[in-house]
Design goal:
By secondary structure, the protein is an alpha/beta fold. It has two domains: 234 residues, TIM Barrel; 38 residues, no CATH class. Helix content is 33%, strand content 16%. The strands form two sheets. Strands 1, 2, 3, 4, 5, 6, 7, 8 and 9 form a nine-stranded parallel β-sheet that branches. Strands 10-11 form a two-stranded antiparallel ribbon. The longest helix is centred in the N-terminal third of the chain and has 24 residues.
């Protein structure tokens, strides 16, 4: 290679290197939305059928897990195992096959292998609850040995600030990402709107963001109505595997966007008015009109909320069944799990209220 050829090669190399940041900046903001707790609820199929690249996290050993996994594959959704792990409280809500602190390495790895075999289409894992377990370095090291062996990724649901997932995944070469936003800790329309707008702000300012939601009817209705807003704002919905090994949004940015996230205005349409009305909230159900002293009587603003769809939601677990209050030590037989609501061939049973999933 002569001297002029070398100089041309060096020039082209510099041009290519300089173009990389420009290409990275030209990429649209991206969000991944994980739907946890799949396998129990009547609304599961509806949320899976939403025409977006949502990621579906399936609980192991659930009544409808296999059917929902097949449906998710049919609709091109990415599938994860939503692995129950011990929390600091409310462990009666863990479900079957959970990882608990008293279990030894063999029991932990056997339980995780069995859970993965129950959801064989899973290409990744995230923790269900786990505010205690994901802070235990030794136990999470056992978990990541299995995850690495099976060439899966791990998403930290970030249910504790003491999580050791980042360091343990790095040790085992496991691709990872942590959650930035919980969409539906509060299932009111106003709270969902606030969290969704925070997701949008994080994606725009950080370039990407990961949210976790659940198959609640309120979440399904909200996402059905508002997911189109992402494309309108130039944000792309991607499977969570597209954001692996990208840094989570800084805590300061998450805190700042949580304080400044605006509420999406509801649509407004003119209606004939017989009495003046006061301005009302754009994110809550429309209250009864209130008369004001001075207001133009010609037109009033009627808030158009999404039409409620009557989808029953039921707490997914039966805490009165055996197995919740004892470690899921294998090969101790586990109970047969069923939906909280009565099946057609079941006699009615008196059921006490159950607290919702706590993290």
């Amino acid at each position: 290679m002569n001297h002029s050829s070398v100089r041309i090669f060096q020039f082209l190399s510099v041009v290519c290197c300089l173009s990389l940041p420009v290409q990275a900046q030209s990429l649209p903001p991206q969000v991944a939305i994980i739907i946890d707790d799949i396998g129990y609820q009547k609304v599961d199929p509806d949320i899976i059928r939403l025409p977006y690249a949502l990621t579906v996290a399936v609980m192991p050993f659930t009544p409808n897990g296999h059917d929902m996994t097949a449906l998710a594959r049919q609709h091109g959704k990415e599938i994860m195992l939503h692995m129950p792990m011990e929390a600091v409280a409310q462990n009666h809500l863990l479900g079957k096959g959970a990882l608990r602190r008293p279990m030894n390495k063999q029991q932990v790895q056997q339980a995780l292998h069995q859970a993965l075999d129950n959801v064989p289409q899973a290409i990744g894992v995230n923790n269900h609850m786990g505010s205690l377990y994901t802070a235990l370095p030794e136990q999470m090291d056992w978990v990541m040995q299995v995850v690495a062996e099976r060439r899966l990724y791990f998403i930290d649901s970030k249910t504790t600030g003491k999580s050791v997932v980042g360091s343990v995944t790095q040790k085992h070469g496991v691709k990872t990402r942590s959650r930035d936003v919980f969409l539906d800790n509060d299932k009111s329309y106003k709270a969902l709107d606030r969290q969704f707008n925070q997701l949008i702000q994080l994606a725009k300012q950080h370039g990407h963001a990961v949210a976790i939601g659940h198959p609640y009817p309120e979440t399904y209705r909200y996402l059905k109505k508002n997911l189109p807003r992402l494309a309108q704002q130039g944000i792309k919905v991607v499977p969570v595997s597209a954001l692996l090994d990208l840094p989570a949004a800084p805590a300061q940015l998450i805190a700042r966007t949580a304080k400044t996230s605006p509420t999406q205005p509801a649509s407004v349409k003119p209606v004939a008015a017989t009495k003046p009305v006061a301005a009302v909230s754009h994110s809550e159900p429309t209250p009864a009109p209130v008369q004001l002293a001075e207001q133009s009587p010609s037109v009033s603003a009627e808030i158009v909320e999404p039409v409620p769809e009557l989808i029953p939601w039921h707490p997914p677990y039966l805490p009165q069944l055996p197995g919740f209050d004892t470690p899921a030590v294998l090969p101790v037989p586990e109970p047969q799990w069923r939906r909280f609501y009565r099946q057609s061939d079941e006699p009615p049973a008196a059921l006490s209220p159950v607290p919702l999933l706590l993290r």
